[in-house]
């Protein structure tokens, strides 16, 4: 009975094992085939290189400073009898404002005396001119040997003319001294300090105040060597944008006035001077730039012709990866002309239309096969056309 069962079961077991073995072989073959069909190329994205004319922007920083700083002095001596209400520390006064006045009675008297002396000298000159005419008339009837310069009163006439000129000079000085009794602002000014008061006697030449010129402000701009190459030509008169950054950010326009013509020894930077007009907005509604403010100054440099602008992370050791028509990676050496923010400006090594790799594989190799990301229909279409 057992033998009969074995004879019946054994063929069935063998047949089942055979079927299972064939199924396993077919499955393994299918997996191998599927494995062989799997595309293991790295997925990348590309972008076409396009040359453009690029305007270089140069940025520097500096401190706003006055064009002039004046130690104001009295040009005549006397007692201070009045001063302007804005003639205080922090006061702003327009050009020509009378800052303070000195007692002028003595100088008015001196002016009257100078006028009297001039009148007297002119009268004396008129008398001498008349005498000279009389002498010249009489000399016509005399022998030439008897007629001398002294007889014609030429020395006396010259002396009278000199006396008139001397009196005129004294009158001019007297008028000047009287005018100096009113000390005026030499320009639109910010008063930094004042050292006088009512009733105080000031001596001629004594320092009485310190003023800053607010008609024009200057900013010294350090320019690094890699920026100096791209400065515009000519430089003087170039428009700049001056920006004060903070809680409230505002800007004004200015110009480059000059290059100091030296390279600073410690930093090896060039020095430019920018100017802005009316920094305290005495004559406009523009934002105020106070002296001592630290500002950003930007100006347009040279325009670079036909350069390629690439993100810095696509350039390694001056090498850029391209994808050729066979979808293989190719490294090319490039010449980086300038760094602009997060970008490099490249002027050599790339050609118009080159397909630049924008997602670089972890270990790129020359000739490595790649495929394009499927989510970029435009690039996929380009790749299909190339193939």
Sheet-strand content, in percent, reads 35-45%
Number of strands: 22
Helix content: 25-40%
Based on CA atoms alone, the radius of gyration comes out at: 47 Å
Give the strand order of the largest sheet, numbering strands 1, 2, ... along the chain. Answer: 3-12-15-14-13-16
**Rounded average pLDDT:** 85
- Class per helix and strand makeup: alpha+beta
**Which regions contain 5 or more consecutive residues with pLDDT less than 50?**
none
Give the distance, in angstroms, between the N- and C-terminal Cα atoms.
Answer: 73 Å
With helices defined by DSSP (H or I, 4 residues minimum), what is the helix count? 5
* Helix-strand string: HEEEEEEEHHEEEEEHEEEEEEEEEEH
Largest sheet: 6 strands, antiparallel, barrel
Shape: elongated
What would a concise description of this structure say?
This protein is 29% helix and 35% strand. It contains five helices and 22 strands. Helix 2 (105-139) packs antiparallel against helix 3.
Word description of this protein:
The chain is α+β, with helices and mostly antiparallel strands. The protein has five helices and 22 strands. The chain has helices at 2-37, 105-139, 154-179, 225-228, 377-386; strands spanning 43-44, 46-48, 52-66, 69-73, 78-83, 92-93, 98-102, 182-184, 189-194, 201-202, 207-213, 216-223, 239-244, 250-263, 270-277, 294-311, 319-323, 329-333, 335-340, 343-348, 355-357, 371-372. The protein is elongated. The model has no long low-confidence stretch (mean pLDDT 85).
